[in-house]
Amino acid sequence: MENVDNLDNGKESLCKEPFTKRRSLRRNITEYSCGICKKPFTSEDDLLKHKKIHQKPFRCEVCEKSYVSKSNLTSHKRFHSGERLFRCEICGKYFVHKCKLVAHMSSHTGEKPFHCEICDKSFVSVSNLKEHRNLHTGEKPFCCKICGKSFFWKKSFVIHTRCHTGEKPYHCDICGKSFVSSSNLVHHKKIHSGEKPFRCEICGKSFVANDELTKHNRTHTGETPFRCDICGDSFLDSSNLITHKRTHTGERPFRCEICGKSFRQNSHLIFHIRRHTGEKPFRCEICGLSFVSNSDLTMHKRRHTGDKQHRCEICGKCFVSSSELTSHKRTHTGENCVVCMKSFVSRKELLAHKNTHLSGTYSP
User: Fold this and answer.
1) Are 158 and 165 in contact (CB under 8 A)?
2) Residue 249 to residue 145: CA distance in whole angstroms
3) Which residue ranges does the record assign to the C2H2-type domain (predicted)?
4) Of 234, 190, 226, residue with least CA distance to 210
5) CA 189 and chain centroid, separation
6) Whole-angstrom Cα distance, residue 252 to residue 272?
7) What is the mean pLDDT of residues 153-158?
8) What does the alpha-carbon distance between residue 167 and residue 161 come to, in Å, rounded to a whole number?
């Protein structure tokens, strides 16, 4: 038998694994690497397949997005056409991809065959398991080339890139409104149907989405799990924390193309634009008054019904909105700085004061 130590490529010296056959050793040696990303491969075929990831010759003529293979492009085009080829025989739901249907079927059977060896959590697909593992390692492999933001999950990354491209491939067949994700479209359609399947067991209020109910429940429990590492303020959800942090950084990423004014939140920009256009799409069926936002209409309707859901636990007084209750509470407590305990009437004044501590310009 030929001694494998006599192989002249020098690579076997890096590996202490004993091999009895040249073929076994060859399989263990990495001989091919990608010239673009340097990823190693054990065969030329694997390398050639990998290189296609860097080349995307198949381009969508609708949105100009490019793909590695023609089959991927064909699947993508279904988002534009609305074509759904794969149907669930149990609930009748349609899917663009067969793999999505297979994963969906697990929601009926409850089967989750892929288990995380670290925390024992289970998943319907191996891809979901792989992305879950990133939470344990801290790895965020999906990085946006435009703004540099990284993500644990490919789905989050894809949805994020659409905020740069403006792509909204999911269309409501009732009103024509478009959305960046299928979940946003499903959420939106419940506005038309009036469906609110998620009900609070404490107060009976119902919600379109489960995450809205989760956020609402925190108003009962007082839980504010999202904490600002700069000033210590806590919030009901992560989106409120992200918006809050912009008060420290001064970031206002949402800009009005009409007057140039910038905003911390996209929703504030939308409301602002309506002040230019005069659009007030939310109309009260009782008195005929119209409003810029649905939340303004909801608050207005409570003045007709006398519904005052927000109660002060100190004096028992009730209010139409949480913002009115918050303002009222300051008559009892004031707004106190956690650093020097100085009190303020408004939250805006308190935030301005906190920034004097952070910038070193504070004077007693």
Assistant:
1) no
2) 22
3) 32-54, 58-85, 86-113, 114-141, 142-169, 170-197, 198-225, 226-253, 254-281, 282-309, 310-337, 335-357
4) 190
5) 19
6) 14
7) 86
8) 9
In angstroms, how far is CA 167 from the centroid of its own chain? 16
220-277 confidence digits (pLDDT tens): 888 888 889 889 888 888 888 888 988 899 888 888 888 999 988 888 888 888 889 9
Which amino acid makes up residue 276?
A: H
User: To 10 degrees, what angle do helices 238-249 and 347-359 make?
Assistant: 60
The SS3 of residue 222 is coil
Name 299's Cβ contacts closer than 8 Å, sequence gap at least 6. 320, 321
d(CA 188, CA 97): 23
- How confident is the model over 299-334, as pLDDT tens digits? 888 888 888 888 888 888 888 777 788 777 776 766
**Contact (CB, 8 A) for 328 and 310:** no
CB atoms within 10 A of CB 123: 18
Report the C-alpha gap between 1 and 21 in whole angstroms: 8
At residue 294, the pLDDT reads: 82
DSSP bridge pairs for 122 = 115
In this prediction, residue 181 has a pLDDT band, given cuts at 50, 70 and 90, of: confident
Place of tokens 């256009």: 277
Residue 192, phi then psi, degrees to nearest 5: -70, -40
CA-CA-CA-CA torsion sign (290, 236, 156, 209): negative
Q: What is the residue-wise DSSP string for 52-103?
A: TTT---EE-TTT--EESSHHHHHHHHHHHHT---EE-TTT--EESSHHHHHH
- CA proximity to 82, closest of 96, 92, 71, 69: 96
CB atoms within 10 A of CB 266: 12
* 68/76 Cα distance (integer angstroms): 12
